[in-house]
Specification:
Structural class of chain A: alpha+beta
Strand order of the largest sheet of chain B: 2-1-5-4-3-8-9
Order of helices and strands of chain B: HEEEHHEHEHEEEEH
Distance between the termini of chain A: 17 Å
Number of domains of chain A: 1
CATH architecture of chain B: 3-Layer(aba) Sandwich
Strand content of chain A: 5-15%
Strand content of chain B: 15-25%
Chains: A alpha+beta (284), B alpha+beta (207), C alpha+beta (525)
Distance between the termini of chain B: 47 Å
Shape of chain A: globular
Number of strands of chain B: 9
Helix content of chain B: 25-40%
Number of helices of chain A: 9
Oligomer: heterotrimer
Order of helices and strands of chain A: HHHEEEEEHHHHEHEEHEE
Largest sheet of chain A: 3 strands, antiparallel
CATH superfamily of chain B: Glutaredoxin
Chain lengths: 284, 207, 525
């Protein structure tokens, strides 16, 4: 794997629980996760760094994959920020790291829109509340912030696993009302961003994975799509990708997931976008 | 007599200058390209990839900061040695481009292959790869850590993903960097036509 | 004479001949050669000029790209003016994607995704042979990446992969519009049906090099469906419903992105005698349109937006992802409705528009209502339903007096719906339980008693034609007075029965008033 997730004690417990769960019949993901989280020693929960929640181990079913890839990818337990990184957080970061100030940043690391809505290098300005999620930040900026905090960005698998929980159950993909609610956010325009944390938390105690901003992930460039959905689903673009050809979606009706993958495909690492922020993850 | 002398002198002048010109071209020092690490410049343009503070090792085991590639246009692609499918075609294509370049252009560009596979494509493995594919002195094969590989791929706009068997799925991209390390041209896909790339390299070297 | 001695030596070397070279002969030779060289140069220059003129005339003939211009974009229902240049050009198109909430119907708002801020997207008008430099600009406030597939483009995805753009960014690609026609363009980002279902479609016209015949009005009309969580007309903010879209059950089918976009104050206009051209498109995403303008015939239709012309057409099919050009002349003033002739879409989902034609009347072509008179026609006789057609149940219509015939016919209907169940179509009943009506002494007996029996029902033993029957007849007070009068008339004139006396509803009414409400044991007695 590109990044090595250290296994702590809690991680190993998760691993055992997950492997045991494989014996259970399919469709009992909720049960598995409940058992896993109940079996976890209480200290692991208490050890969560401030502002982070423990996401127990589980499986992630990739929306987009090709025939050679497994349908289920195991995800180890990890900590995830409960809230997106705010303008206030990022301000502290640019104060401590001048090379990330708007007037100093290099174009390969952040494009012309970097911190566009700020009034100055160290002034978010009156239009940007300090508790709003920080946006117009590139992948490099997000990664460096995470490193500065002793954390990292979550992977696609980790983010999707955490985001699959609705507020009442860990397996939100079986909850049509939840999917519908997520879809509503995606298709409603918003030009000004409300503060973080105003909406209810999901099953793991994490807020605003849906409904606020898109979020950077570590391996955003791991999805082999071209952006032309007809070519991608027909597997036409074999010359563009080494391997079994471009990938196709497992569930053509899971529109919210489709849209997230489509959005990630359109990104380059130095893009700074109005509706795109991030949060951090950390190994156990 | 005088006129004969004059014409002879004229012809002799022509001959000597022609020879001198020919002599000049053959006397261009043939760098085994990019071996000497150029001192990293304090000023790089904002879009130069050489600003990436990454540690690479070449197939001779020598440490190679990316900025040492500065000074000459680079043809860069990312690959891995165990690839059975597209990477051999990519390398073949670049070799064809190399062969299509006029001598004075070829000696002024470098070809850089960076491996996705931090684990298996060690400098020794890369050395073997070089020998198998008969890559000459102006080719550079680089090994880097997973984070550096991820950063470089992100800068180049290359998509990739490692699967459970240790193989890599990735987009097929050949990138042309100018002497300052800025991306000036990219080709995606496995079309083996070399004209466009050869033409652009020629343009860049001549300026 | 100019001294040419200084070049004598090389010339002499070049033109060395046998024999003596004298000064004079060498000079003459040089002059001749100069003349020859001049001649060659002159010829070359002349030929080049001629060739240049040929190139210029190619340019004027329209095979070479000449000039650069920004494309004018039309906002529906209007289109940019026809192209007048006689040669192809480089045309720069800038199209912006905007995700915007606005009116779908009165009191109803929808989250649209648009090309240019409107549904349908901006109308692009170019000429055959143009080299288009296309810029797709994704507004920074949008949430989604978008791209574009123009059906006028020959190339992978129609431009889709090349134009895939994140919010706050712009993509550029080029294509040559080598084939004339009217083409759809739409977003092709996954999920495509949703992007199109939210309004991301429009038309691009590639005018043929000879241009289109001139008309008085050109309009842009594009049909599309909207799949909303709420029903048609349900007020409030509506958004895309994926289940309805997959099931192809739209709540709205409209022209130009909203109910009423072409009606009332937004109606298209023309004058009598005007020649009108409609550029039609269908964005779908699912339904085909049967486009018709009520009250007119299309003089010319270019089906599918192609080059073949069909004449004298009433309704033309426009498939989703397809287009058509229709032309007609306004001959008579009035309001003409543009519809999708799948009528429930027109009248219940919004697929209706108007073109208002003003000007002088023409009674010969259409007179309007000329008179309104009284008219009665023959009375309508509902044909009753006959339950079974077996031979023994064939009912003969007796030769009844006229006034009884109607009652008979109505009574037969009542019998065949109600009484036959027990008394059988044959009128023979069931032995031991249900008495016959055929040649029944009871039925043909006391009328008042028979009426009471029908009204109140009966139970207990009954003797009919000397045989005993023990069963229950339920009350049929629910039948009207007339129905009871009619069915008894029928029964008393069928199966060999004959009764020429009229049995009226008044008698039934009187019996009903005097009859007790409970089930009598034997009202027939």
């Amino acid at each position: 794997m590109i990044w090595n997730v250290r296994k702590g004690r809690a991680g190993r417990t998760k691993e055992v629980a997950w492997r045991a769960s494989a014996l259970l019949r399919p469709g009992s993901k909720a049960l598995v996760l409940l058992i896993a989280s109940a079996a976890m020693p209480a200290w692991a929960q208490n050890q969560a760094p401030a502002g982070m929640a423990l996401i127990p181990a589980g499986v992630y079913r990739p929306l987009v994959r090709d025939a050679t890839e497994p349908k289920e990818v195991p995800v180890k337990a990890f900590y995830l920020d409960r809230l997106p990184v705010t303008v206030g957080d990022y301000l502290q970061f640019v104060r401590a790291n001048p090379r990330w100030q708007r007037s100093q940043v290099q174009r390969i690391f952040a494009d012309e829109s970097y911190l566009k809505d700020w009034s100055g290098d160290l002034e978010p300005g009156t239009n940007t509340a300090t508790d709003a999620p920080v946006t117009y930040v590139s992948w490099f900026g997000a990664k460096d912030f995470a490193r500065w905090k002793g954390k990292r960005l979550p992977s696609v698998a980790e983010w999707e696993h955490a985001a699959s929980a609705s507020s009442t159950r860990p397996d939100g993909e079986n909850d049509p009302a939840f999917k519908h609610q997520v879809l509503q956010w995606y298709i409603t325009p918003n030009s000004s961003l409300p503060g973080v944390g105003t909406r209810p938390a999901n099953f793991w105690g994490v807020r605003d994975l849906h409904g606020l901003v898109w979020e950077w992930v570590l391996d955003f460039n791991s999805v082999m799509l071209t952006g032309d959905s007809r070519a991608d689903s027909g597997g036409l673009e074999r010359g563009l990708f080494c391997g079994a050809g471009s990938q196709s979606a497992k569930d053509a009706a899971d529109y919210p997931a489709f849209m997230r993958f489509g959005f990630r495909t359109s990104l380059e690492a130095n893009y700074c976008i109005h509706n795109l922020g991030f949060r951090c993850a950390k190994d156990l | 007599m005088r006129t004969k002398l004059l014409s002879l002198m004229g012809l002799a002048c022509l001959y000597v200058s022609a020879m001198a010109a020919a002599d000049n071209s053959t006397n261009v020092p043939r760098h085994s390209c990019c071996v000497e690490a150029a001192p990293p410049s304090s000023h790089l343009p904002g879009k130069s990839l050489y600003q990436l503070d990454a540690r690479w090792t070449d197939d001779q085991g020598k440490a190679m900061p990316l900025a040492s590639l500065k000074g000459r246009p680079q043809i860069v692609t990312m690959f891995f040695a165990h690839c059975q499918y597209a990477c051999p075609l990519l390398v073949y294509k670049i070799k064809q481009v190399e062969a299509a370049l006029p001598e004075e252009v070829r000696s002024n560009v470098c070809f850089t292959l960076v491996s996705f596979d931090s684990e298996r494509d060690t400098p020794a493995a890369l050395r073997t790869y070089r020998m198998q594919h008969e890559l000459q002195g102006n080719w550079r094969l680089l090994h880097g850590g997973p984070d550096d590989v991820l950063n470089l791929a992100a800068l180049l706009g290359v998509k990739f993903k490692q699967d459970a068997e240790g193989q890599f799925k990735h987009s097929n991209v050949i990138t042309l960097l100018n002497a300052e390390g800025e991306i000036v041209y990219q080709e995606a896909g496995l079309n083996l036509a070399t004209d466009e790339l050869a033409h652009r390299i020629g343009q860049m070297v001549r300026h | 004479m100019i001294s040419l001695t200084w070049i004598k030596a090389p010339w002499a070397v070049m033109f060395k001949r046998r024999g003596v070279i004298t000064k004079e002969s060498a000079a003459k030779k040089v002059k001749t050669n100069i003349v020859k060289i001049f001649g060659v140069v002159a010829l070359t220059a002349g030929a080049h000029t001629l060739w240049g003129a040929q190139v210029a005339s190619n340019f004027m003939d329209g095979t070479e790209i000449g000039g650069e211009e920004n494309a004018l974009l039309g906002k529906a229902p209007n289109v940019p003016p026809p192209i007048t240049r006689k040669h192809p050009a480089k045309v720069i198109v800038n199209l912006e994607v905007k995700e915007i909430t606005k009116r779908l119907a009165d009191g109803v708002e929808y989250n649209f995704w648009t090309f240019g801020g409107d549904v349908p997207g901006s109308f692009i008008r170019i000429r055959e042979g143009d080299l288009v430099e296309f810029h797709l600009n994704n507004n920074q406030n949008n949430k989604m990446p978008h791209n574009i597939d123009l059906h006028a483009v020959t190339g992978p995805g129609g431009g889709a992969a090349a134009s895939f753009t994140a919010p706050g960014h712009s993509s550029q690609f080029s294509f040559t519009a080598s084939t004339p026609g009217l083409y759809v363009y739409h977003c092709a980002t996954a999920p495509v049906g949703m992007h199109v279902g939210n309004g991301m479609y429009g038309l691009i016209l590639v005018e043929p090099k000879e241009g289109l015949p001139p008309v008085d009005h050109e309009y842009y009309v594009m049909q599309g469906e909207f799949y909303t969580g709420g029903k048609f007309g349900e007020p409030g903010l509506q958004s895309f419903d994926e289940d309805k879209a997959i099931d192809e059950r739209p709540s709205y089918v409209v022209f130009n992105g909203a109910v009423g976009s072409l009606t009332g104050n937004n109606a298209l206009t023309a004058r009598v005698g005007d020649r009108i051209r409609l550029f039609l498109g269908n964005g779908g995403p699912n339904l085909s349109s049967s486009f018709h303008v009520i009250g007119t015939i299309f003089d010319t239709v270019y089906p599918e937006g192609g080059s073949a012309a069909t004449r004298h057409v009433q309704t033309t099919a426009v498939p989703p992802g397809g287009a058509a050009i229709v032309e007609f002349t306004a001959t008579v003033p009035g309001d003409y409705a543009l519809v999708d002739h799948s009528l429930f879409r027109a009248f219940n989902k919004g697929a209706v528009g108007t073109i208002t034609v003003s000007g002088p009347e023409n009674k010969a072509v259409y007179s309007g209502k000329q008179s309104d008179n009284v008219y009665t026609g023959e009375p309508i006789t509902n044909v009753p339903v006959v339950v079974s057609a077996t031979p023994q149940n064939q009912v003969e219509v007796p030769n009844l007096a006229l006034n009884l015939r109607e009652q008979y016919a109505r009574g037969r209907a009542v019998y065949s719906q109600t009484c036959f169940v027990c008394h059988q179509p044959s009128g023979l009943g069931v032995p031991g339980q249900i008495p016959p009506l055929a040649k029944s002494d009871v039925l043909m007996g006391d009328t008042a008693g028979v009426i009471r029996g029908v009204l109140q029902g009966r139970s207990g033993e009954l003797t009919v034609n000397g045989k005993k029957y023990n069963g229950i007849m339920i009350p049929f007070g629910n039948l009207s007075d007339q129905q009871i009068a009619d069915v008894l008339t029928f029964a008393r004139n069928t199966w060999g029965n004959s009764d020429t006396n009229a049995l009226t509803s008044a008698e039934v009414q009187a019996a009903r008033k005097g009859a007790p409400a409970t089930l009598a044991t034997n009202p027939f007695e």
